[in-house]
Amino acid sequence: MLEAFRVSSLFILTALAEIVGCYLPWLVLVQGRSPWLLLPAALALAFFAWLLTLHPQAAGRTYAAYCGVYVMMALLWLWRVDGVTPTRWDLAGGAICLLGMALIAFQPRTAGA
After folding, report:
1. Is 111 domain-assigned?
2. Which of 14, 88, 92, 93 is at a distance of 20 to 30 A from 34, taking alpha carbons?
3. Is residue 110 part of a domain?
4. Any residues with CB less than 8 A from the CB of 51 and at least 6 apart, and which?
5. DSSP tag of 112
6. Could you report how far apart the first and last alpha carbons of the chain are, in Å?
7. Residue 1 reports pLDDT greater than 80
8. CA 49, CA 65: separation in Å to the nearest integer?
9. Tens digits of per-residue pLDDT, 41-81?
10. What is the DSSP string of 65-94?
């Protein structure tokens, strides 16, 4: 149970770093905000890449599982930052993605897998 919490927390932090790293350039390019925002964006994306190396599974499995958490974090961002309430379809899709993440990340392991 502790391992599932650790992995899930790491996925959440990884997703947050990626979203911030992509959102800040969006503010610069779409909303005309200060180009200085590109510096923390680059740092957030570097942090994101480093966080991916901390996951205990093979890279491909980590990326596949991570996507489910990323989708839910993006929906949370939509609600809390963009001020748009996710629809029931958004939430259902996010729940399906999280189920996929759980199946990939927490499957029974055999030696060498």
Report:
1. no
2. 14
3. no
4. 10, 13, 14, 17
5. T
6. 20
7. no
8. 15
9. 999 999 999 998 898 777 888 888 888 899 999 999 999 99
10. HHHHHHHHHHHHHHHHTS--PPPHHHHHHH
Residue 32 phi/psi, 5-degree rounding, is 70, 25
**What are the backbone angles phi and psi of residue 69, rounded to the nearest 5°?**
-70, -40
When the pLDDT of each residue in the chain is averaged and rounded to a whole number, the result is: 91
With beta carbons less than 8 A apart as the criterion, state whether 48 and 21 touch.
yes
Q: Residues 72, 94: contact at Cβ < 8 Å?
A: yes
| The total number of residues written for the chain in this structure | 113
Radius of gyration of the chain (CA): 16
pLDDT at 50: 95
Structure tokens at 35: 């180009």
Residue 112 has pLDDT above 70, yes or no: no
Residue 112 forms part of a structural domain: no
Does residue 77 fall inside a structural domain?
Answer: yes
Q: What is the pLDDT of residue 113?
A: 59
Res 84: pLDDT: 97
Q: Count how many domains the chain has.
A: 1
Q: Which residue has the higher pLDDT, 97 or 59?
A: 97
Distance CA 11, CA 52 (A): 8
